[in-house]
């Protein structure tokens, strides 16, 4: 085994396809040929199909459930109700937020679409027939969909199971529909600053309820093997290991007897983090019937019941000097959590990382309080392509800065510039408790403004306003600015856990004798391309080509324990674990090379894909040679083989940032908008695969476009969900989606092994305020301060009408 | 409801199907024939993940009864490439990062395949309009459009070379 062909260093680097390579995705050959393996593609012998009877009411007592007729339907084998689950203690389940949630309606329902009974049948058509035949008698109760009304003294009691319990998972409850109060920062000092400030801008900013809506809905296949006592659970799980632990805790099945497998996942965006009644019912149904049971929700189930996002009423006050230096920030959030608190946040953060709401600005003092509230809406509160409430926080501060600019009569770009945290202030300690790792906001900002010719745009805008006033045009021009700072990569075990499980992540590597490898991780890709990018990280660390490295995720029987993929945590945490495991491999490889070359370890240096004797470049051993030697040689003091595992507990979060500018034309008479230009500069630290980064940015911006310009989960006063299908729930098509220009700066994270920060969620976080600010900015000259999203054509028309622009 | 006998042709192969008249084509394909390329993303004809080609037209298989397509020729994404060789559209989707999670991809490529027969040399605008019946939640479409335009260019170039 020799590999001594002379090949230039550059060519060797190129061949690895390591960090920085525009490597094409290894996933694509399968996906483009229709050979993906998603949960609904899984078939098992004798597999049954389960589906739910759901409540048509938002708040009602369940008087009776009659399953007799349903059980006579051909193909229907069983109908589960809460009464069947109660003896097993499975009629309720714990949520990730320390609350509990009904698996099947236990005496009452709290939102439209809530799961009432689970019909198990031979196929999905028989299950649908069975659902039709289940007779449920309801007695309607008063509905409350407004979180402010829910907190009135005489509001209906939603959670009767909590009656008298005035302390919840996150401290005292003030009212029967109140969940928690979460306070951060210095209240007295902030109020003192507000009282003495030159200028205080005050506004209510609402970030409406929406939904991640991945193209593949949630589902699972549960298979209980009664012979060996093992449960196999396939499902759309963004956190397969956590699901295994949860299933074990609530079912009593020992964890080693549970195998959870996340197959290919058709998009997640936060929708697939939590545990849903469908999972529990499928497991129970498989135990009851002794057969595999599949449950896959349809789109209406998905939009109406599994994992809404946002729904934050954010009241803000921002203080500044008359020159525009921000002196303090105050915020109170009324957080609508729906019928159960099923938010997917680290345990100690009931409002996620909303306390990143000081954003990119050096704000000396701040105070934040969040009140969680129960209403008759679906539970969830997941991070829709963002890290735990960071999108809400970014939208809040980016709106407040714009409103302050109006108050001060200043240019919003300049106001941002004079308040940015300066490059030499990092690591920066924010007033609400975070330590920002690195950043260079001024450089990014100047680059972005120059790229779009900001001065020129403002001139054009002023001319447009004049032309509009003269009656020469009916279109206004909006310039939407955003500079966002994210907080991702949860997180350090000392303060981040979910259900007590520390939020580290992991990578295990085995090098095969012929110099190829398999790496297994605790994460799971949902389209991010992990099989491509994690191999690149490893290629750079261990000097074997990425094409020779298989990446495997999602099977809890084979992968090391990890907390999964959400909150942009895969690169910051599992990516770091991958690099660290690679370094362990390299450390052992160095000893092997030293033995083979008969030199001391310290006489060797690493060079791309080999160890070279210092000062003697002709004497080296490639990783390929070392890999074989590890299986072939009896090396004194060293175990055979070449393997490593790393469990990485990040010392800090990472703080990606970016500058986005949206230029929008708005037709005042129709409310129709057109995005003329969108420029997105992202700084995610070290860039692993620029092609994939760009793809992530395009996708996140399109989700942001949807949210800002039309997408919402809306309810009427009766608690009917008005946006339960893709007819009503806006998902942009190629026709409505603009062309994006992407750009970057690179400010590596100082604490991440390769300096990477994570990028998948930045465009959603930064995109929403950029689109929304463009709408607001178009009407600034006519006195608009704040108008709530989504800015669909009707609402934009109403803005124009309200400002008297229709004559 | 009694089952009925239907004959359909899928990717060039004649198939005998026994199905209830209410059975949707997408379920016949996925569950009876194990053709799992076409996916279900909604059940209201909005998302296009289930797009197949029926007698030369793009059709959403989630809202068509199998009974309605008896005697017809159906092509799915599985019928586009040859074994061991990607179709040029599949190749270009890979080359230009036109997919992420892959869930919309089979429907998207099947639609693009038909679109390029309808308009062999489309403009970007025609591509965007032509695939507006297919939703993607991951890519923002920019690279999908790029992939389709690139495939059109390659197909046209090889067409010209042949002529």
UniProtKB/TrEMBL annotation, chain A:
Origin organism lineage: Bacteria, Pseudomonadati, Pseudomonadota, Alphaproteobacteria, Rhodobacterales
Lineage top rank: taxon: Bacteria
Keywords: Copper, Metal-binding, Molybdenum, Oxidoreductase
GO molecular function: anaerobic carbon-monoxide dehydrogenase activity; carbon-monoxide oxygenase activity; copper ion binding; iron ion binding; molybdenum ion binding
Keyword Heme included in the entry's annotation: no
Catalytic activity: CO + a quinone + H2O = a quinol + CO2
Assembly and oligomerization: Dimer of heterotrimers. Each heterotrimer consists of a large, a medium and a small subunit.
Protein name as catalogued: Carbon monoxide dehydrogenase large chain
Xref: InterPro entries: Ald_Oxase/Xan_DH_a/b, Ald_Oxase/Xan_DH_a/b_sf, Ald_Oxase/xanthine_DH-like, AldOxase/xan_DH_MoCoBD1, AldOxase/xan_DH_MoCoBD2, AldOxase/xan_DH_Mopterin-bd_sf, CO_Mo_DH_lsu
Record-linked Gene3D superfamilies: Aldehyde oxidase/xanthine dehydrogenase, a/b hammerhead, Aldehyde oxidase/xanthine dehydrogenase, molybdopterin binding domain
Cofactor(s) this protein requires: Mo-molybdopterin cytosine dinucleotide; Cu(+)
Main function: Catalyzes the oxidation of carbon monoxide to carbon dioxide.
Automatic annotation (TrEMBL), chain B:
Xref: Gene3D superfamilies: 3.10.20.30, [2Fe-2S]-binding domain (1.10.150.120)
UniProt keyword Oxidoreductase present: yes
InterPro entries: 2Fe-2S-bd, 2Fe-2S-bd_dom_sf, 2Fe-2S_ferredoxin-like_sf, 2Fe-2S_ferredoxin-type, Beta-grasp_dom_sf, Diverse_Oxidoreductases
Domain annotation 2Fe-2S ferredoxin-type: ranges: 6-80
Species: Roseicyclus mahoneyensis
A GO term for molecular function: 2 iron, 2 sulfur cluster binding
Protein name per UniProt: Carbon monoxide dehydrogenase small subunit
Domain of life according to the entry: Bacteria
Keyword Oxidoreductase applies: yes
A Pfam short name: Fer2_2
UniProt keyword terms in alphabetical order: 2Fe-2S, Iron, Iron-sulfur, Metal-binding, Oxidoreductase
């Amino acid at each position: 085994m020799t590999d001594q062909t002379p090949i230039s260093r550059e060519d060797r680097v190129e061949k690895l396809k390591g960090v920085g390579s525009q490597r094409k995705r290894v996933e694509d050959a399968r996906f483009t040929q229709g050979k993906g393996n998603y949960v609904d593609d899984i078939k098992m012998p004798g597999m049954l199909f389960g589906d739910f009877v759901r409540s048509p009411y938002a708040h009602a007592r369940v008087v009776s459930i009659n399953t007799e007729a349903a059980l006579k339907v051909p193909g229907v084998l069983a109908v589960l109700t809460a009464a069947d689950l109660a003896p097993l203690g499975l009629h309720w389940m714990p949520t990730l937020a320390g609350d509990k949630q009904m698996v099947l309606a236990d005496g009452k329902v709290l939102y439209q679409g809530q799961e009432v009974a689970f019909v198990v049948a031979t196929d999905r058509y028989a299950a649908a027939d069975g659902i039709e035949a289940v007779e449920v008698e309801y007695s309607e109760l008063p509905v409350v969909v407004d979180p402010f009304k829910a907190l009135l003294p005489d509001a209906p009691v939603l959670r009767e199971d909590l009656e008298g319990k005035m302390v919840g998972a996150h401290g005292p409850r003030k009212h029967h529909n109140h969940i928690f109060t979460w306070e951060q920062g210095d209240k007295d000092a902030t109020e003192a600053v507000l009282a003495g400030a030159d200028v205080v801008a005050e506004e209510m900013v609402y970030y409406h309820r929406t939904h991640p809506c991945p193209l593949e809905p949630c589902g699972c296949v549960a298979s209980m093997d009664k012979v060996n006592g093992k449960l196999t659970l396939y499902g759309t799980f963004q956190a397969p290991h956590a699901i295994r632990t949860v299933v074990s805790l609530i079912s009593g099945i020992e964890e080693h007897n549970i195998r959870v497998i996340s197959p290919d996942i058709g998009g997640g965006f936060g929708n697939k983090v939590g545990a849903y009644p469908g999972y529990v019912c499928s497991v129970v149904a498989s135990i009851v019937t002794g057969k595999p049971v599949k449950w896959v929700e349809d789109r209406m189930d998905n939009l109406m019941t599994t994992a809404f996002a946002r729904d934050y009423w954010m009241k803000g006050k921002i203080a500044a000097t008359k020159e525009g230096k921000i002196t303090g920030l105050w915020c109170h959030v009324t957080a609508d959590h729906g019928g159960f608190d099923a938010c997917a946040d680290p345990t100690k953060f009931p409002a996620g990382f909303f306390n990143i709401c000081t954003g990119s600005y050096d704000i000396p003092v701040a105070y934040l309080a969040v009140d969680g509230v129960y209403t008759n809406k679906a539970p969830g509160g997941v991070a829709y392509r963002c890290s735990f409430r960071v999108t809400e926080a970014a939208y809040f501060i980016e709106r407040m800065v714009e409103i302050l600019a109006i108050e001060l009569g200043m240019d919003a770009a300049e106001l941002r510039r004079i308040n940015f945290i300066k490059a030499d202030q990092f690591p920066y300690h924010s007033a609400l408790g975070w330590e920002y790792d690195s950043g260079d906001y001024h450089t990014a900002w100047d680059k972005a403004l120059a790229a779009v010719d900001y001065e020129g745009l403002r001139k054009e805008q002023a001319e447009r306003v004049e032309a509009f006033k003269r009656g020469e045009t009916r279109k206004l021009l909006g310039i939407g600015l955003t500079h966002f700072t994210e907080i991702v990569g949860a997180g350090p075990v000392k303060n981040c856990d979910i259900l007590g499980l520390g939020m580290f992540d992991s990578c295990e590597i085995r090098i095969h004798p012929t110099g190829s490898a398999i790496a297994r991780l605790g994460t799971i890709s949902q389209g991010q391309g992990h099989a491509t990018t994690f191999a690149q990280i490893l290629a750079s660390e261990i000097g074997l080509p990425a094409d020779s490295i298989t990446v495997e995720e999602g099977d809890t029987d084979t992968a090391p324990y990890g907390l999964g993929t959400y909150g942009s945590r895969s690169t910051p945490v599992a990516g770091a674990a991958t690099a660290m495991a690679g370094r362990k491999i390299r450390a052992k490889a160095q000893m092997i090379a030293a033995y083979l070359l008969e030199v001391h370890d310290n006489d060797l240096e690493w060079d791309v894909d080999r160890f070279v004797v210092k000062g003697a470049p002709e004497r080296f051993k490639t990783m390929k040679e070392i890999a074989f030697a590890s299986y072939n040689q009896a090396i004194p003091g060293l175990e055979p083989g070449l393997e490593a595992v790393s469990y990485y507990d990040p010392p800090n979060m990472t703080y990606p940032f970016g500058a986005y500018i949206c230029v929008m034309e708005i037709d005042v008479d129709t409310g129709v908008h057109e995005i003329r230009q969108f420029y997105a500069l992202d700084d995610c630290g070290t860039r692993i695969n620029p092609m994939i980064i760009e793809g992530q940015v395009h996708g996140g911006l399109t989700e942001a476009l949807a949210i800002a310009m039309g997408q919402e989960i809306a309810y009427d006063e009766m608690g009917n969900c008005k946006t339960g299908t893709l007819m009503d729930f806006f998902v942009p098509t190629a026709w409505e989606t603009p062309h994006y220009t992407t750009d970057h700066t690179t400010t590596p994270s100082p604490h991440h092994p390769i300096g990477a920060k994570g990028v998948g969620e930045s465009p959603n976080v930064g995109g929403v305020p950029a689109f929304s600010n463009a709408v607001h900015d178009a009407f600034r000259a006519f006195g608009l301060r704040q108008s709530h999203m989504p800015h669909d054509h009707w609402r934009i028309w109403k803005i124009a009408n309200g400002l008297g622009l229709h004559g | 409801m009694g089952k009925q006998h239907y004959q359909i042709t899928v990717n060039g192969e004649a198939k005998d199907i026994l199905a209830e008249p209410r059975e949707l084509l997408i379920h016949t394909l996925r569950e009876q024939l194990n053709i799992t390329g076409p996916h279900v993303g909604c059940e209201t004809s909005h998302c296009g993940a289930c797009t197949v080609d029926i007698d030369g037209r793009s059709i959403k298989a989630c809202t068509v009864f199998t009974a309605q397509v008896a005697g017809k020729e159906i092509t799915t994404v599985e019928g586009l490439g040859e074994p061991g060789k990607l179709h040029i559209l599949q190749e270009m989707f890979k080359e230009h990062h036109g997919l992420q999670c892959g869930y919309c991809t089979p429907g998207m490529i099947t639609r693009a395949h038909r679109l390029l027969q309808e308009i062999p040399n489309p403009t970007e605008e025609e591509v965007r309009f032509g695939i507006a019946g297919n939703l993607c939640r991951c890519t923002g479409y920019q690279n999908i459009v790029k992939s389709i335009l690139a495939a059109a260019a390659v197909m046209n170039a090889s067409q010209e070379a042949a002529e």
